[in-house]
Design a protein that fits this description.
Length: about 210
């Protein structure tokens, strides 16, 4: 009984000084369960009922969905899911196809935080299905896009931006965006003095085991 009580006391001491940092997302309302709360919009962006819906703006040509974040410790990747669809609208004359693109920018300079030579976006897809991205930092699996963040320092201010660029190409285009998140790696982080307590705890438990 003495051995069990002492072991429980030591275990409680260790729990008080060792913290678990669980994977978490720095993005607010990335699943859009709270409509568009936490996001800044420009143009026709609406709550689609659990996702954000960007529609082509016939006046200003560009529709935007943005959120500024601070990259957390151990940030691994930025991921999101999307769906792009177009229907004929009877217009014509603009040679460039409607396009959706995603960017991760410095919110002060609007420069990309990762090297994407010649472009500010890291992912591009137009209504014809043409995609453009750097496969060394971006992975695309069906409708899920993953951007590698391991090259960016923790604490960096970042602007997540999704844009729909439209025009008179004969189609009305819309994009659904959902499940925007920053994935992180979890780790056990000892508080000051934790290493010493772990050593003492191990010694105490070993001592009581030897005495029984």
């Amino acid at each position: 009984m003495i051995r069990k009580r002492c072991a429980m006391v030591v275990y409680g001491m260790l729990l008080s000084v060792v913290g678990w940092v669980a994977p978490a997302s720095a993005v607010v309302n990335g699943d859009f369960d709270a409509a568009l709360n936490g996001w800044t919009t420009a143009g026709p962006v609406s709550d689609g009922g659990g996702f954000a819906l960007l529609e082509e703006d016939p006046v200003f040509a560009i529709t935007s969905l943005e959120q500024q974040i601070v990259l957390p410790m151990n940030a691994l990747a930025l991921t999101f899911e999307y769906g792009l669809s177009s229907t004929p609208d009877g217009t014509s004359g603009f040679p460039m196809a409607d396009a959706f693109y995603a960017s991760l920018l410095d919110p002060a300079t609007f420069n990309p935080l990762l090297s994407t030579p010649g472009y500010t976006d890291y992912f591009y897809e137009d209504r014809t299905g043409i995609q453009d991205f750097d496969s060394s930092i971006v992975t695309v699996v069906r409708n899920r896009v993953t951007l590698d963040l391991t090259g960016i320092a923790a604490g960096t201010n970042a602007l997540i931006a999704f844009d729909l660029l439209g025009g008179d190409d004969g189609y009305a285009t819309e994009v659904m965006v959902d499940n925007v998140e920053i994935t992180t790696g979890g780790a056990i982080i000892p508080a000051p003095g934790a290493v010493l307590l772990v050593s003492i705890g191990a010694a105490l438990i070993g001592r009581f085991r030897r005495r029984v």
